Write a sequence for this structure.
DNA sequence: ATCGTCAAATTGGTCAAGCCAATTTGGTCG
DNA sequence: CGACCAAATTGGCTTGACCAATTTGACGAT
Protein backbone atom coordinates (compact mmCIF):
# COMPACT_ATOMS: atom_id res chain seq x y z
CA UNK A 1 0.00 0.00 0.00
CA UNK A 2 1.69 3.15 -1.17
CA UNK A 3 0.68 6.59 -0.07
CA UNK A 4 -2.77 6.82 1.34
CA UNK A 5 -4.23 9.77 -0.48
CA UNK A 6 -6.68 7.97 -2.64
CA UNK A 7 -9.57 10.27 -3.17
CA UNK A 8 -7.85 13.55 -3.54
CA UNK A 9 -10.96 14.92 -5.18
CA UNK A 10 -10.43 18.65 -4.95
CA UNK A 11 -6.74 17.94 -4.79
CA UNK A 12 -6.41 17.20 -8.44
CA UNK A 13 -3.52 19.58 -8.77
CA UNK A 14 -0.98 16.79 -9.20
CA UNK A 15 2.06 18.91 -8.86
CA UNK A 16 4.12 16.37 -10.75
CA UNK A 17 5.24 17.07 -14.26
CA UNK A 18 5.16 14.25 -16.70
CA UNK A 19 7.76 14.12 -19.34
CA UNK A 20 6.24 15.41 -22.53
CA UNK A 21 6.81 12.50 -24.83
CA UNK A 22 5.15 14.13 -27.75
CA UNK A 23 6.64 16.29 -30.41
CA UNK A 24 9.61 15.78 -32.56
CA UNK A 25 13.14 14.48 -32.25
CA UNK A 26 14.55 12.89 -29.12
CA UNK A 27 12.33 9.83 -29.30
CA UNK A 28 14.78 7.85 -31.30
CA UNK A 29 13.71 4.33 -30.48
CA UNK A 30 15.10 1.80 -32.90
CA UNK A 31 11.54 0.74 -33.32
CA UNK A 32 9.37 3.84 -33.39
CA UNK A 33 6.44 2.65 -31.36
CA UNK A 34 3.11 4.28 -31.83
CA UNK A 35 2.25 7.13 -29.59
CA UNK A 36 -0.73 5.42 -28.03
CA UNK A 37 1.50 2.54 -26.96
CA UNK A 38 4.01 4.88 -25.36
CA UNK A 39 1.22 6.64 -23.52
CA UNK A 40 -0.29 3.36 -22.39
CA UNK A 41 3.08 2.18 -21.09
CA UNK A 42 3.61 5.42 -19.26
CA UNK A 43 0.21 5.23 -17.58
CA UNK A 44 0.84 1.59 -16.67
CA UNK A 45 4.05 2.71 -15.05
CA UNK A 46 2.32 5.40 -13.08
CA UNK A 47 -0.23 2.87 -11.88
CA UNK A 48 2.36 0.32 -10.83
CA UNK A 49 4.50 2.93 -9.17
CA UNK A 50 1.55 3.79 -7.00
CA UNK A 51 1.03 7.23 -8.42
CA UNK A 52 -2.43 6.10 -9.49
CA UNK A 53 -3.50 3.66 -6.76
CA UNK A 54 -5.95 0.86 -7.56
CA UNK A 55 -9.59 1.89 -7.55
CA UNK A 56 -8.61 5.54 -7.85
CA UNK A 57 -9.81 7.77 -10.62
CA UNK A 58 -7.42 9.13 -13.19
CA UNK A 59 -7.47 12.85 -14.04
CA UNK A 60 -9.99 13.83 -16.66
CA UNK A 61 -9.06 13.07 -20.23
CA UNK A 62 -8.52 16.69 -21.12
CA UNK A 63 -6.37 17.33 -18.08
CA UNK A 64 -4.38 14.10 -18.35
CA UNK A 65 -3.76 14.71 -22.02
CA UNK A 66 -2.35 18.10 -21.23
CA UNK A 67 -0.19 16.72 -18.42
CA UNK A 68 1.21 14.05 -20.71
CA UNK A 69 1.71 16.55 -23.48
CA UNK A 70 -0.43 14.71 -26.01
CA UNK A 71 -3.74 15.29 -27.67
CA UNK A 72 -6.96 13.89 -26.34
CA UNK A 73 -7.59 11.46 -29.24
CA UNK A 74 -4.14 9.94 -28.72
CA UNK A 75 -4.75 9.64 -25.00
CA UNK A 76 -8.11 8.07 -25.73
CA UNK A 77 -6.47 5.46 -27.94
CA UNK A 78 -4.11 4.62 -25.09
CA UNK A 79 -6.99 4.39 -22.62
CA UNK A 80 -8.79 2.00 -24.95
CA UNK A 81 -5.70 -0.18 -25.07
CA UNK A 82 -5.53 -0.12 -21.29
CA UNK A 83 -9.23 -0.91 -21.07
CA UNK A 84 -8.86 -3.89 -23.38
CA UNK A 85 -6.15 -5.50 -21.32
CA UNK A 86 -8.02 -4.81 -18.11
CA UNK A 87 -5.79 -2.18 -16.58
CA UNK A 88 -8.45 0.51 -16.32
CA UNK A 89 -12.19 0.77 -16.49
CA UNK A 90 -13.85 3.63 -18.36
CA UNK A 91 -17.22 4.85 -17.12
CA UNK A 92 -19.00 7.30 -19.35
CA UNK A 93 -19.60 10.64 -17.74
CA UNK A 94 -17.84 9.55 -14.60
CA UNK A 95 -14.19 8.94 -15.27
CA UNK A 96 -11.40 6.48 -15.85
CA UNK A 97 -10.70 4.18 -12.92
CA UNK A 98 -7.78 1.91 -12.15
CA UNK A 99 -8.96 -1.69 -11.98
CA UNK A 100 -8.61 -3.09 -8.45
CA UNK A 101 -6.46 -5.96 -9.64
CA UNK A 102 -4.09 -3.88 -11.74
CA UNK A 103 -1.22 -3.89 -9.31
CA UNK A 104 0.99 -5.97 -11.50
CA UNK A 105 2.65 -5.95 -14.88
CA UNK A 106 1.25 -6.67 -18.33
CA UNK A 107 -2.13 -8.26 -18.14
CA UNK A 108 -1.48 -11.27 -20.30
CA UNK A 109 1.89 -12.74 -19.70
CA UNK A 110 5.48 -11.83 -19.18
CA UNK A 111 5.14 -10.97 -15.56
CA UNK A 112 7.98 -11.41 -13.14
CA UNK A 113 8.18 -11.99 -9.46
CA UNK A 114 7.40 -15.62 -10.01
CA UNK A 115 10.31 -17.82 -9.14
CA UNK A 116 11.66 -20.26 -11.72
CA UNK A 117 10.86 -23.03 -9.31
CA UNK A 118 7.22 -22.05 -9.27
CA UNK A 119 7.24 -21.81 -13.02
CA UNK A 120 8.51 -25.33 -13.40
CA UNK A 121 6.07 -26.68 -10.86
CA UNK A 122 3.24 -25.03 -12.77
CA UNK A 123 4.51 -26.56 -15.98
CA UNK A 124 4.69 -29.95 -14.31
CA UNK A 125 1.09 -29.96 -13.15
CA UNK A 126 -0.32 -28.42 -16.32
CA UNK A 127 1.66 -30.53 -18.74
CA UNK A 128 0.97 -33.54 -16.57
CA UNK A 129 -2.75 -33.34 -17.17
CA UNK A 130 -2.09 -32.35 -20.76
CA UNK A 131 -0.19 -35.59 -21.21
CA UNK A 132 -3.11 -37.51 -19.75
CA UNK A 133 -5.53 -35.86 -22.15
CA UNK A 134 -3.21 -36.41 -25.08
CA UNK A 135 -2.79 -40.03 -24.09
CA UNK A 136 -6.51 -40.56 -24.09
CA UNK A 137 -6.97 -39.33 -27.63
CA UNK A 138 -3.67 -40.35 -29.13
CA UNK A 139 -3.52 -41.39 -32.77
CA UNK A 140 -0.81 -42.98 -34.88
CA UNK A 141 -0.26 -39.63 -36.55
CA UNK A 142 0.11 -37.93 -33.21
CA UNK A 143 2.58 -40.53 -32.03
CA UNK A 144 4.73 -40.11 -35.10
CA UNK A 145 4.63 -36.35 -34.70
CA UNK A 146 5.97 -36.69 -31.16
CA UNK A 147 8.56 -39.21 -32.24
CA UNK A 148 9.69 -36.86 -34.99
CA UNK A 149 10.54 -34.16 -32.45
CA UNK A 150 12.57 -36.69 -30.48
CA UNK A 151 14.60 -37.86 -33.44
CA UNK A 152 15.17 -34.29 -34.57
CA UNK A 153 16.33 -33.40 -31.11
CA UNK A 154 18.70 -36.36 -31.04
CA UNK A 155 20.18 -35.29 -34.34
CA UNK A 156 20.73 -31.75 -33.13
CA UNK A 157 22.43 -32.96 -29.96
CA UNK A 158 24.68 -35.28 -31.91
CA UNK A 159 25.66 -32.42 -34.19
CA UNK A 160 26.51 -30.22 -31.27
CA UNK A 161 23.78 -27.72 -32.13
CA UNK A 162 21.23 -26.26 -29.77
CA UNK A 163 18.24 -28.59 -29.55
CA UNK A 164 16.11 -26.03 -27.73
CA UNK A 165 13.72 -25.53 -30.62
CA UNK A 166 13.03 -29.25 -30.85
CA UNK A 167 12.59 -29.47 -27.10
CA UNK A 168 10.00 -26.75 -27.48
CA UNK A 169 8.31 -28.59 -30.32
CA UNK A 170 8.08 -31.74 -28.20
CA UNK A 171 6.18 -29.99 -25.46
CA UNK A 172 4.01 -27.96 -27.83
CA UNK A 173 3.16 -30.96 -29.96
CA UNK A 174 2.07 -32.84 -26.88
CA UNK A 175 -0.03 -29.87 -25.83
CA UNK A 176 -1.71 -29.61 -29.20
CA UNK A 177 -2.48 -33.30 -29.14
CA UNK A 178 -4.46 -32.72 -25.98
CA UNK A 179 -7.08 -31.28 -28.27
CA UNK A 180 -7.50 -28.15 -26.18
CA UNK A 181 -6.08 -25.01 -27.71
CA UNK A 182 -6.38 -23.06 -24.47
CA UNK A 183 -4.16 -25.54 -22.70
CA UNK A 184 -1.83 -25.52 -25.68
CA UNK A 185 -1.53 -21.77 -25.37
CA UNK A 186 -0.77 -22.00 -21.67
CA UNK A 187 1.93 -24.60 -22.26
CA UNK A 188 3.46 -22.44 -24.97
CA UNK A 189 3.41 -19.32 -22.84
CA UNK A 190 4.94 -21.09 -19.86
CA UNK A 191 7.65 -22.63 -22.00
CA UNK A 192 8.55 -19.31 -23.60
CA UNK A 193 8.52 -17.59 -20.26
CA UNK A 194 11.56 -19.54 -19.22
CA UNK A 195 13.49 -17.95 -22.01
CA UNK A 196 12.50 -14.39 -21.33
CA UNK A 197 15.42 -11.95 -21.11
CA UNK A 198 15.88 -12.21 -17.39
CA UNK A 199 15.92 -15.97 -17.45
CA UNK A 200 18.25 -16.23 -20.38
CA UNK A 201 21.39 -16.09 -18.33
CA UNK A 202 20.22 -19.04 -16.31
CA UNK A 203 19.61 -21.25 -19.29
CA UNK A 204 23.30 -21.52 -20.04
CA UNK A 205 23.24 -24.50 -17.78
CA UNK A 206 21.42 -26.19 -20.58
CA UNK A 207 24.23 -25.63 -23.04
CA UNK A 208 25.62 -28.92 -22.02
CA UNK A 209 25.41 -31.88 -24.27
CA UNK A 210 25.15 -34.35 -21.42
CA UNK A 211 22.31 -32.41 -19.84
CA UNK A 212 20.44 -32.36 -23.11
CA UNK A 213 20.92 -36.08 -23.52
CA UNK A 214 19.30 -36.68 -20.18
CA UNK A 215 16.36 -34.52 -21.18
CA UNK A 216 16.11 -36.46 -24.40
CA UNK A 217 15.96 -39.73 -22.53
CA UNK A 218 13.15 -38.36 -20.40
CA UNK A 219 11.28 -37.40 -23.53
CA UNK A 220 11.60 -40.96 -24.70
CA UNK A 221 10.14 -42.21 -21.43
CA UNK A 222 7.15 -39.96 -21.97
CA UNK A 223 6.82 -41.19 -25.51
CA UNK A 224 6.86 -44.79 -24.35
CA UNK A 225 4.01 -44.06 -21.96
CA UNK A 226 2.01 -42.47 -24.75
CA UNK A 227 2.67 -45.44 -27.00
CA UNK A 228 1.57 -47.79 -24.27
CA UNK A 229 -1.60 -45.73 -23.77
CA UNK A 230 -0.91 -45.38 -20.08
CA UNK A 231 -2.21 -41.96 -19.00
CA UNK A 232 -1.04 -42.15 -15.42
CA UNK A 233 2.42 -43.24 -16.46
CA UNK A 234 2.54 -40.42 -19.00
CA UNK A 235 1.59 -37.91 -16.36
CA UNK A 236 4.16 -39.30 -14.00
CA UNK A 237 6.84 -39.21 -16.68
CA UNK A 238 6.08 -35.58 -17.43
CA UNK A 239 6.29 -34.76 -13.75
CA UNK A 240 9.63 -36.50 -13.52
CA UNK A 241 10.94 -34.74 -16.60
CA UNK A 242 9.97 -31.26 -15.53
CA UNK A 243 11.06 -31.69 -11.94
CA UNK A 244 14.43 -32.86 -13.20
CA UNK A 245 14.43 -29.95 -15.59
CA UNK A 246 13.81 -27.65 -12.69
CA UNK A 247 16.77 -29.05 -10.80
CA UNK A 248 19.00 -28.71 -13.83
CA UNK A 249 17.87 -25.15 -14.25
CA UNK A 250 17.81 -23.68 -10.78
CA UNK A 251 19.99 -26.19 -9.03
CA UNK A 252 18.70 -27.95 -6.01
CA UNK B 1 -15.23 -0.39 -54.35
CA UNK B 2 -18.73 1.04 -54.22
CA UNK B 3 -20.05 -2.29 -53.07
CA UNK B 4 -23.00 -2.27 -50.74
CA UNK B 5 -21.90 -0.11 -47.92
CA UNK B 6 -23.43 0.39 -44.62
CA UNK B 7 -25.47 3.45 -43.92
CA UNK B 8 -24.89 6.74 -45.48
CA UNK B 9 -23.81 9.79 -43.66
CA UNK B 10 -25.92 11.15 -40.90
CA UNK B 11 -25.39 14.34 -39.11
CA UNK B 12 -27.88 13.62 -36.41
CA UNK B 13 -25.96 11.58 -33.92
CA UNK B 14 -27.06 9.38 -31.12
CA UNK B 15 -29.49 7.28 -33.04
CA UNK B 16 -29.19 3.77 -34.30
CA UNK B 17 -26.84 4.23 -37.12
CA UNK B 18 -24.75 1.12 -37.29
CA UNK B 19 -25.46 -1.74 -39.58
CA UNK B 20 -27.69 -4.63 -38.44
CA UNK B 21 -24.80 -5.89 -36.40
CA UNK B 22 -26.54 -9.24 -36.07
CA UNK B 23 -28.19 -8.17 -32.87
CA UNK B 24 -29.70 -11.26 -31.40
CA UNK B 25 -33.06 -10.33 -30.04
CA UNK B 26 -32.56 -11.98 -26.70
CA UNK B 27 -29.22 -10.38 -26.04
CA UNK B 28 -30.07 -7.65 -23.65
CA UNK B 29 -26.94 -5.59 -23.52
CA UNK B 30 -28.15 -3.11 -20.95
CA UNK B 31 -25.02 -1.06 -21.19
CA UNK B 32 -24.71 0.53 -24.60
CA UNK B 33 -21.52 -0.72 -26.09
CA UNK B 34 -19.00 1.86 -27.07
CA UNK B 35 -18.93 2.83 -30.71
CA UNK B 36 -15.40 1.60 -31.23
CA UNK B 37 -16.45 -1.83 -29.98
CA UNK B 38 -19.38 -1.95 -32.38
CA UNK B 39 -17.11 -0.96 -35.23
CA UNK B 40 -14.51 -3.54 -34.22
CA UNK B 41 -17.15 -6.26 -34.07
CA UNK B 42 -18.50 -5.24 -37.44
CA UNK B 43 -15.07 -5.35 -39.04
CA UNK B 44 -14.41 -8.72 -37.41
CA UNK B 45 -17.63 -9.94 -38.96
CA UNK B 46 -16.64 -8.65 -42.37
CA UNK B 47 -13.32 -10.45 -42.04
CA UNK B 48 -14.82 -13.73 -40.95
CA UNK B 49 -17.51 -13.55 -43.60
CA UNK B 50 -14.80 -13.37 -46.20
CA UNK B 51 -15.56 -9.81 -47.23
CA UNK B 52 -12.02 -8.94 -46.19
CA UNK B 53 -9.93 -12.06 -46.89
CA UNK B 54 -6.85 -12.81 -44.78
CA UNK B 55 -3.71 -10.96 -45.81
CA UNK B 56 -5.79 -8.48 -47.78
CA UNK B 57 -5.66 -4.78 -47.22
CA UNK B 58 -8.61 -2.93 -45.82
CA UNK B 59 -9.83 0.27 -47.44
CA UNK B 60 -8.05 3.40 -46.36
CA UNK B 61 -9.09 4.80 -43.01
CA UNK B 62 -10.82 7.78 -44.53
CA UNK B 63 -12.73 5.68 -47.02
CA UNK B 64 -13.62 2.93 -44.57
CA UNK B 65 -14.83 5.45 -42.03
CA UNK B 66 -17.14 6.93 -44.61
CA UNK B 67 -18.42 3.51 -45.65
CA UNK B 68 -19.17 2.59 -42.06
CA UNK B 69 -20.74 5.94 -41.39
CA UNK B 70 -18.41 6.86 -38.54
CA UNK B 71 -15.65 9.36 -38.02
CA UNK B 72 -12.04 8.55 -38.56
CA UNK B 73 -11.02 8.85 -34.87
CA UNK B 74 -13.70 6.34 -33.92
CA UNK B 75 -12.60 4.00 -36.67
CA UNK B 76 -9.00 4.39 -35.53
CA UNK B 77 -9.98 3.39 -32.00
CA UNK B 78 -11.63 0.28 -33.40
CA UNK B 79 -8.57 -0.53 -35.49
CA UNK B 80 -6.38 -0.24 -32.41
CA UNK B 81 -8.62 -2.68 -30.60
CA UNK B 82 -8.38 -5.06 -33.55
CA UNK B 83 -4.63 -4.60 -33.65
CA UNK B 84 -4.31 -5.44 -29.96
CA UNK B 85 -6.15 -8.72 -30.24
CA UNK B 86 -4.22 -9.61 -33.35
CA UNK B 87 -6.99 -9.39 -35.91
CA UNK B 88 -5.29 -6.81 -38.10
CA UNK B 89 -1.85 -5.35 -38.57
CA UNK B 90 -1.38 -1.63 -39.13
CA UNK B 91 1.56 -0.50 -41.21
CA UNK B 92 2.23 3.21 -41.21
CA UNK B 93 1.94 4.78 -44.59
CA UNK B 94 0.96 1.50 -46.15
CA UNK B 95 -2.39 0.34 -44.87
CA UNK B 96 -4.31 -1.93 -42.56
CA UNK B 97 -3.93 -5.62 -43.30
CA UNK B 98 -5.91 -8.65 -42.13
CA UNK B 99 -3.68 -11.00 -40.16
CA UNK B 100 -3.28 -14.32 -41.98
CA UNK B 101 -4.60 -16.39 -39.11
CA UNK B 102 -7.60 -14.20 -38.36
CA UNK B 103 -10.04 -16.29 -40.32
CA UNK B 104 -11.28 -18.10 -37.28
CA UNK B 105 -13.55 -16.87 -34.54
CA UNK B 106 -12.19 -15.92 -31.18
CA UNK B 107 -8.97 -14.35 -32.38
CA UNK B 108 -7.69 -13.95 -28.87
CA UNK B 109 -4.12 -12.71 -28.88
CA UNK B 110 -3.19 -14.32 -32.10
CA UNK B 111 -3.90 -17.86 -31.12
CA UNK B 112 -6.19 -20.15 -32.97
CA UNK B 113 -9.82 -20.46 -32.21
CA UNK B 114 -10.46 -21.17 -28.58
CA UNK B 115 -14.03 -22.03 -27.95
CA UNK B 116 -15.68 -21.31 -24.62
CA UNK B 117 -15.98 -25.04 -24.20
CA UNK B 118 -12.25 -25.48 -24.50
CA UNK B 119 -11.74 -22.63 -22.11
CA UNK B 120 -13.88 -24.28 -19.46
CA UNK B 121 -12.18 -27.62 -19.97
CA UNK B 122 -8.82 -25.96 -19.50
CA UNK B 123 -10.07 -24.30 -16.35
CA UNK B 124 -11.35 -27.63 -15.11
CA UNK B 125 -8.04 -29.45 -15.47
CA UNK B 126 -5.91 -26.58 -14.20
CA UNK B 127 -8.10 -25.67 -11.27
CA UNK B 128 -8.50 -29.36 -10.53
CA UNK B 129 -4.81 -29.80 -9.81
CA UNK B 130 -4.78 -26.43 -8.12
CA UNK B 131 -7.43 -27.70 -5.74
CA UNK B 132 -5.32 -30.77 -5.02
CA UNK B 133 -2.30 -28.62 -4.23
CA UNK B 134 -4.34 -26.26 -2.10
CA UNK B 135 -5.84 -29.19 -0.26
CA UNK B 136 -2.41 -30.54 0.57
CA UNK B 137 -1.22 -27.33 2.19
CA UNK B 138 -4.52 -26.05 3.56
CA UNK B 139 -4.54 -24.09 6.78
CA UNK B 140 -7.33 -22.89 9.05
CA UNK B 141 -6.78 -19.38 7.75
CA UNK B 142 -7.05 -20.57 4.18
CA UNK B 143 -10.23 -22.44 4.92
CA UNK B 144 -11.84 -19.40 6.48
CA UNK B 145 -10.76 -17.27 3.53
CA UNK B 146 -12.52 -19.65 1.18
CA UNK B 147 -15.56 -19.79 3.40
CA UNK B 148 -15.71 -16.02 3.48
CA UNK B 149 -16.06 -15.86 -0.30
CA UNK B 150 -18.89 -18.36 -0.12
CA UNK B 151 -20.85 -16.45 2.49
CA UNK B 152 -20.28 -13.17 0.65
CA UNK B 153 -21.51 -14.76 -2.52
CA UNK B 154 -24.59 -16.05 -0.74
CA UNK B 155 -25.54 -12.64 0.58
CA UNK B 156 -25.05 -11.08 -2.85
CA UNK B 157 -27.34 -13.65 -4.42
CA UNK B 158 -29.95 -13.15 -1.70
CA UNK B 159 -29.81 -9.40 -2.30
CA UNK B 160 -30.34 -9.86 -6.00
CA UNK B 161 -26.95 -8.35 -6.81
CA UNK B 162 -24.38 -9.79 -9.17
CA UNK B 163 -22.18 -12.25 -7.29
CA UNK B 164 -19.65 -12.50 -10.09
CA UNK B 165 -16.91 -10.75 -8.15
CA UNK B 166 -17.25 -13.15 -5.24
CA UNK B 167 -17.31 -16.10 -7.60
CA UNK B 168 -14.03 -14.78 -8.95
CA UNK B 169 -12.62 -14.38 -5.48
CA UNK B 170 -13.48 -17.98 -4.65
CA UNK B 171 -11.50 -19.32 -7.56
CA UNK B 172 -8.62 -16.91 -7.12
CA UNK B 173 -8.39 -17.56 -3.39
CA UNK B 174 -8.19 -21.26 -4.04
CA UNK B 175 -5.49 -20.65 -6.63
CA UNK B 176 -3.45 -18.54 -4.28
CA UNK B 177 -3.73 -21.18 -1.59
CA UNK B 178 -2.03 -23.59 -3.96
CA UNK B 179 1.15 -21.73 -3.09
CA UNK B 180 2.17 -21.32 -6.71
CA UNK B 181 1.86 -17.81 -8.08
CA UNK B 182 2.28 -18.95 -11.65
CA UNK B 183 -0.71 -21.23 -11.35
CA UNK B 184 -2.60 -18.45 -9.60
CA UNK B 185 -1.92 -16.16 -12.53
CA UNK B 186 -3.10 -18.76 -15.01
CA UNK B 187 -6.31 -19.30 -13.08
CA UNK B 188 -6.90 -15.57 -12.94
CA UNK B 189 -6.23 -15.03 -16.62
CA UNK B 190 -8.51 -17.88 -17.61
CA UNK B 191 -11.25 -16.55 -15.37
CA UNK B 192 -10.91 -13.09 -16.82
CA UNK B 193 -10.99 -14.39 -20.35
CA UNK B 194 -14.08 -12.37 -20.93
CA UNK B 195 -12.45 -10.38 -23.69
CA UNK B 196 -13.41 -12.89 -26.27
CA UNK B 197 -16.39 -11.52 -28.17
CA UNK B 198 -18.02 -14.91 -27.91
CA UNK B 199 -17.72 -15.23 -24.17
CA UNK B 200 -18.91 -11.71 -23.63
CA UNK B 201 -22.29 -12.24 -25.11
CA UNK B 202 -22.77 -15.65 -23.59
CA UNK B 203 -22.21 -14.53 -20.05
CA UNK B 204 -25.67 -13.05 -19.80
CA UNK B 205 -26.93 -16.55 -19.18
CA UNK B 206 -25.53 -16.20 -15.72
CA UNK B 207 -27.82 -13.35 -14.84
CA UNK B 208 -30.08 -15.83 -13.25
CA UNK B 209 -30.45 -16.17 -9.54
CA UNK B 210 -31.22 -19.87 -9.67
CA UNK B 211 -28.15 -20.53 -11.78
CA UNK B 212 -26.00 -18.68 -9.33
CA UNK B 213 -27.45 -20.64 -6.44
CA UNK B 214 -26.45 -23.87 -8.10
CA UNK B 215 -22.93 -22.56 -8.58
CA UNK B 216 -22.88 -21.56 -4.93
CA UNK B 217 -23.86 -25.06 -3.89
CA UNK B 218 -21.03 -26.45 -5.97
CA UNK B 219 -18.63 -24.10 -4.25
CA UNK B 220 -19.77 -25.50 -0.93
CA UNK B 221 -19.09 -29.03 -2.13
CA UNK B 222 -15.56 -28.00 -2.99
CA UNK B 223 -15.17 -26.36 0.39
CA UNK B 224 -16.34 -29.51 2.12
CA UNK B 225 -13.69 -31.51 0.30
CA UNK B 226 -11.03 -29.02 1.35
CA UNK B 227 -12.21 -29.15 4.93
CA UNK B 228 -12.10 -32.94 4.86
CA UNK B 229 -8.57 -32.81 3.45
CA UNK B 230 -9.55 -35.01 0.57
CA UNK B 231 -7.48 -33.92 -2.48
CA UNK B 232 -9.06 -36.30 -4.95
CA UNK B 233 -12.54 -35.31 -3.86
CA UNK B 234 -11.60 -31.64 -4.14
CA UNK B 235 -10.30 -32.17 -7.64
CA UNK B 236 -13.41 -34.06 -8.59
CA UNK B 237 -15.64 -31.37 -7.13
CA UNK B 238 -13.82 -28.69 -9.09
CA UNK B 239 -14.22 -30.72 -12.25
CA UNK B 240 -17.92 -31.11 -11.58
CA UNK B 241 -18.34 -27.41 -10.87
CA UNK B 242 -16.58 -26.19 -13.98
CA UNK B 243 -18.13 -28.76 -16.28
CA UNK B 244 -21.54 -27.70 -14.99
CA UNK B 245 -20.48 -24.11 -15.45
CA UNK B 246 -19.57 -24.87 -19.01
CA UNK B 247 -23.00 -26.36 -19.64
CA UNK B 248 -24.69 -23.35 -18.10
CA UNK B 249 -22.74 -21.03 -20.36
CA UNK B 250 -22.52 -22.67 -23.70
CA UNK B 251 -25.41 -25.06 -23.39
CA UNK B 252 -24.71 -28.69 -24.12
C1' DA C 1 -33.21 20.56 9.61
C1' DT C 2 -34.09 16.95 6.09
C1' DC C 3 -35.09 15.23 1.90
C1' DG C 4 -36.30 15.26 -2.89
C1' DT C 5 -35.74 17.81 -7.37
C1' DC C 6 -33.61 19.71 -11.04
C1' DA C 7 -30.20 22.48 -13.35
C1' DA C 8 -25.30 23.49 -13.85
C1' DA C 9 -20.74 21.59 -13.95
C1' DT C 10 -17.89 17.73 -15.02
C1' DT C 11 -16.49 14.00 -17.85
C1' DG C 12 -16.46 10.68 -21.42
C1' DG C 13 -18.18 9.96 -26.54
C1' DT C 14 -18.02 11.43 -31.05
C1' DC C 15 -17.23 14.13 -35.02
C1' DA C 16 -14.96 17.40 -38.42
C1' DA C 17 -10.96 19.29 -40.80
C1' DG C 18 -6.29 19.69 -41.30
C1' DC C 19 -1.15 19.00 -41.24
C1' DC C 20 2.79 15.87 -40.94
C1' DA C 21 5.55 11.64 -41.81
C1' DA C 22 6.10 7.24 -43.85
C1' DT C 23 5.23 4.36 -47.70
C1' DT C 24 4.02 3.39 -52.23
C1' DT C 25 3.81 4.43 -56.97
C1' DG C 26 4.97 6.01 -61.37
C1' DG C 27 7.66 8.35 -64.01
C1' DT C 28 12.29 10.16 -65.65
C1' DC C 29 17.04 9.92 -66.31
C1' DG C 30 21.47 7.52 -66.57
C1' DC D 1 17.22 -2.20 -67.52
C1' DG D 2 17.98 -0.18 -63.22
C1' DA D 3 18.60 3.66 -60.01
C1' DC D 4 16.48 7.63 -58.46
C1' DC D 5 13.32 11.20 -57.36
C1' DA D 6 8.71 13.45 -56.83
C1' DA D 7 3.77 13.12 -56.51
C1' DA D 8 0.04 10.47 -54.66
C1' DT D 9 -1.61 7.57 -51.08
C1' DT D 10 -2.03 6.29 -46.35
C1' DG D 11 -1.55 6.11 -41.48
C1' DG D 12 -0.21 9.26 -37.21
C1' DC D 13 -1.38 12.98 -34.67
C1' DT D 14 -3.41 17.48 -33.36
C1' DT D 15 -6.86 21.16 -32.60
C1' DG D 16 -11.46 22.44 -31.71
C1' DA D 17 -16.01 21.70 -31.08
C1' DC D 18 -20.50 19.69 -29.68
C1' DC D 19 -23.39 15.90 -27.65
C1' DA D 20 -24.62 12.56 -23.93
C1' DA D 21 -24.13 10.53 -19.42
C1' DT D 22 -22.96 11.28 -14.78
C1' DT D 23 -22.09 13.83 -10.80
C1' DT D 24 -22.63 17.76 -7.94
C1' DG D 25 -24.88 21.14 -5.40
C1' DA D 26 -28.14 24.72 -4.75
C1' DC D 27 -33.00 25.38 -3.99
C1' DG D 28 -37.54 24.63 -2.49
C1' DA D 29 -41.04 21.67 -0.19
C1' DT D 30 -42.06 19.11 3.86
Amino acid sequence: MPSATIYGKANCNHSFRMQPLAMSSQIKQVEPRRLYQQIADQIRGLIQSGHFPPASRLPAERELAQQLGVSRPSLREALIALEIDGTVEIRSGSGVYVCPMAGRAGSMMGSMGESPSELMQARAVVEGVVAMLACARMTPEGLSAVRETITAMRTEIASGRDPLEHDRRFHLTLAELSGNSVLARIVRDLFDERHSPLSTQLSVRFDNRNTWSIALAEHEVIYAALEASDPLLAQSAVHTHLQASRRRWVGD
About this structure: Chain B has two domains: 1-113, 116-250. Residues 54 and 101 of chain B are 7 Å apart (CA to CA). Chain B touches chain A at residues 36, 73, 76-77, 80-81, 84-85, 109, 111-114, 118-119, 121-122, 125-126, 128-130, 133, 180-183, 185-186, 188-190, 192, 195 (CB under 8 Å).
